[in-house]
Amino acid sequence: MKEHLFEYLLRLGDDSLILGHRVSEWCGHGPILEEDIALTNISLDLIGQATSLLKYAGEVEGKGRDEDQLAFLRLEHDYKNCLLVEQLNGDFGMTIMRQFLFDAYRLPLFEALIHSSDSQLAAIAEKSLKETKYHYRHSAEWVIRLGDGTEESHERIQKAVNSLFKYHVDLFFTNHVDDALLKEGIVPEMKAIHNKWMESVKNVFSEATLEIPSNNWEQSGGRLGRHSEHLGLLLAEMQYMQRAYPNMEW
After folding, report:
1. In the chain, which ranges are continuous DSSP H helix?
2. Which 8-state DSSP code applies to residue 167?
């Protein structure tokens, strides 16, 4: 059971870590000062979640690896994040749509995980839920604002939907790990999370006058360590200091 819990914690922690790094790339480049600060704070929240989740993962693994080693000293195929979070920032609309699709998934997931039979995972979820509620409200409001705004803003955010929606299937990946943890009451049933996600997406898209792509394109593999070309480049930047100066400390 420890191996299954470790795997699950890596998924959650890697999602937060990689998306946190992606969003941090906006620091100093936001479209307005207030949004620059907002995106930076969201990034810090996600890195904080990653720290808690990966620290617990290291404890569960029991091999002496802490959160920093798990974050900076794994190879690309060892990361279990979903494909969505590693996608390039693109323009502001692309970043906001990526964030919204992720937030709409993370919100009901953390709402369910606060009832986990694993007390430490439940505590992490409870703390993270407060932050995720803000993240969701922020991204949803921007999706509506851009979608129901000018002709250009609508076109750009719809383009983001068309580009990113195919990655949503990776969010709801399940295998024997989830089945084992579900039996122990540690994780929720993912179908219920998917239903809540879809309800949120449809409601926000309706207000934003956006359309869900009519094709059935799907792209997955991140949970199994199969990533897009973007993750390797991201890790090269993120891991540079630890790779160049092993065991460095501030």
Report:
1. 2-24, 33-61, 67-72, 83-86, 92-113, 119-147, 151-164, 168-171, 176-183, 190-208, 229-238, 240-244
2. G
Cα angle 8, 12, 16 (rounded to 5 degrees) comes to 160
Residue holding tokens 């790990």?
Answer: 177
How many residues are recorded in the chain? 250
Q: pLDDT tens digit string along 82-137?
A: 999 999 999 999 999 999 999 999 999 999 999 999 999 999 999 999 999 999 99
Residues 6 or more apart whose CB falls under 8 angstroms from that of 103 comprise 132, 135, 136, 139, 140
Q: What is the pLDDT of residue 16?
A: 98
- For 212-228, how does the pLDDT look when each residue is reduced to its tens digit (9 = 90+)? 999 888 999 999 999 99
> Can you give the C-alpha Rg of the chain in angstroms?
18
Alpha-carbon distance 231 to 202, whole Å? 29
Domains of the chain, CATH where assigned: 2-211+220-244 (1.20.1260.10)
The answer to whether the CB of 120 falls within 8 A of the CB of 55 is no
Say if pTM beats, i.e. exceeds, 0.90.
Answer: yes
Separation of alpha carbons 223 and 175, rounded Å: 10
Q: How many CB atoms lie within 10 A of CB 12?
A: 27
